[in-house]
Write a structure and sequence with these properties.
Blueprint: H1 7-18, E1 22-27, H2 34-42, E2 47-51, H3 58-73, H4 84-91, E3 98-103, H5 108-111, H6 114-126, E4 132-138, H7 141-148, E5 161-164, H8 170-179, H9 185-195, H10 200-207, H11 213-221, H12 231-240, H13 244-255, H14 261-268, H15 276-285, E6 289-292, E7 306-309, H16 312-321, H17 325-329, H18 333-347, H19 349-364, E8 370-375, E9 381-388, E10 391-402, H20 404-417, E11 428-437, H21 440-445, E12 449-452
Parallel strand pairs: 1-4, 1-5, 2-3, 3-4, 10-11, 11-12
Antiparallel strand pairs: 6-7, 8-9, 9-10
Helix pairs in contact: 4-6, 8-9, 12-13, 13-14, 13-16
Length: about 450
């Protein structure tokens, strides 16, 4: 699959390369495209790529790194680079332009922490006299913070920039799916709702010729040789070892709609006080879960926080594969596929709401300072609430086609929630976003915000 997007990131990397010596950190959750971005940037440049394998000892890793460096730079045999000290000493004495990449750099924290402090020492003493462009990447946002961002971090303020890659947006993904041969707009949407903005999965859509939701299920997930059949379990085992089952249970609970610490703890049979370290790992380490508060709340004070998935495919896997492992392991894929297809409209509604909120936020960002969902303790919710100095906008999002009468009922119910929100900037506009909305022009003329998500649609705000 060809390389898509990331133009701004590539421009930054080219700038830092031209101004070497430079030090760049690239982070973001798994499968988001960090390695592909780095490979695209390194194309045609002198570069060394080192992968920090957590299953190897530091001695084995240095032997591998030294061998790779000797081969790439055509070094004479008498130069020894088989210890961290000799490896870094030679690297920082190299006097030609060179890109040096350490992928999954944060693993040195557990594998050999002194490597990080040694790199700091060499960078401080010799780095500014080299032509090196050092790029370190890592999928553990929490560990990257521990190495580079905290005040006592070993490489605090050494990086010229920290680049956090985000998932691709829905517009980009729908365009990519069209390029990959998915012609039906409804099926492009289904595939986006399944895989989200994690570009890694789109390579399999192309490779296996998937053109709709059903072929993606058949070829990528629901067969004994499917490339994604162990995707979530492999990641859990690699990151968490013997404790992976507990993380699995937590993800499955969130996929079933349990969103508070107490609700999750009740399902996984853990004390609520034991849950925070696991949830921190899933949010900071893997980035597949996100902690949210109502848009009107303040994070440091709110007790209304919820945990939701930040990854569409992990949510799907936790809900349908993990919870039905007996069916899956016994090869009864057709039963499982039928269950998924029957429940798809309801299950994908959450992902559709997330997608719609993303698109609406892009459109509204110029006029409103804070945008997000809102809820209260008694269970009232508003899908999108936007707050600004000139007023507020409240929008309900529906993953279906809406009649004019249905739209009026939804808007009336939304109007009843507005008085429940204290201190809401006035005036307040209410609105609706849905696949299609009958009589959208009529509602817009009456002063409502209306957004037809299958087309440009009329609207205001």
């Amino acid at each position: 699959m060809k390389f898509y997007g990331r133009e701004q990131e590539l421009r930054l990397m080219e700038h830092l390369y031209a101004k070497a010596p430079s030090f760049l950190v690239v982070t973001g959750r798994r499968r988001i495209g960090k390695t592909e971005l780095i490979k695209e940037f390194c194309r045609g440049k002198p570069a060394l790529y080192f992968y920090v394998d957590a299953n190897k000892s530091i001695d084995a890793l240095m032997e591998e790194f030294g061998r790779l460096m000797a081969e790439a730079l055509d070094l004479p045999g008498y130069i020894k680079t088989d210890t961290p000290e000799t490896f870094l000493e030679f690297l920082f004495s190299y006097d030609q332009p060179l890109v040096v990449v350490f992928d999954e750099f944060q693993r040195f924290l557990k594998l050999h922490p002194s490597f990080i402090s040694q790199m700091q020492r060499f960078w401080d003493l010799a780095g500014r006299n080299t032509h090196l462009f050092i790029i370190v990447s890592g999928s553990s946002v929490g560990m990257i913070r521990e190495i580079f961002l905290e005040g006592d971090a070993p490489l605090f303020r050494r990086a010229d920039n920290i680049l956090t890659l985000r998932p691709f947006g829905p517009r980009e993904c729908l365009t990519i799916l069209g390029d990959l041969g998915v012609q039906d707009p409804a099926e492009r949407l289904n595939l986006y709702l399944l895989f989200g903005g994690t570009i890694y999965y789109y390579t399999f859509i192309e490779k296996y010729g998937c053109t709709d939701l059903e072929t993606a299920l058949d070829r990528l997930i629901l067969n004994d040789l499917a490339p994604l059949r162990r995707e979530m379990s492999d990641v859990m085992i690699e990151e968490f070892g013997r404790e992976h089952a507990t993380y699995y249970e937590i993800l499955a609970a969130i996929a079933e709609g349990k969103r508070t610490q107490k609700e999750i703890a009740d399902v996984v049979h853990l004390p609520t006080t034991s849950l925070p370290p696991y949830l921190r790992d899933l949010t900071d380490l893997l980035g597949v879960v996100e902690y949210r508060i109502p848009v009107t709340a303040r994070r440091e004070r709110s007790k209304m926080g919820r945990y939701v998935f930040a990854d569409n495919f992990f949510r799907f896997y936790a809900r349908y594969i993990y919870r039905n492992m007996s069916l899956y392991k016994s090869g009864r894929f057709e039963i499982l596929k039928n269950r998924i297809l029957q429940e798809w409209k309801g299950f994908s509604g959450w992902a559709f709401e997330e997608m719609a909120r993303n698109l609406l936020t892009q459109n509204l960002a110029e006029n409103y300072e804070e945008i997000g969902p809102w809820w209260n303790r008694r269970g009232d919710e508003i899908d999108l609430l936007a707050l600004g100095p000139a007023g507020s906008l409240a929008v309900e999002i529906k993953n279906r086609d809406i009649t004019l009468a249905g739209a009026r009922r939804i808007l009336a119910a939304l109007e009843e929630k507005i008085p429940l929100i204290k201190g809401l900037p006035q005036p307040v506009i209410t609105g609706i976003a849905a696949c299609t909305i009958e009589g959208a022009e009529v509602l817009a003329a009456e002063g409502f915000y209306v957004k037809d998500l299958k087309g440009p649609g009329p609207g205001r705000g």
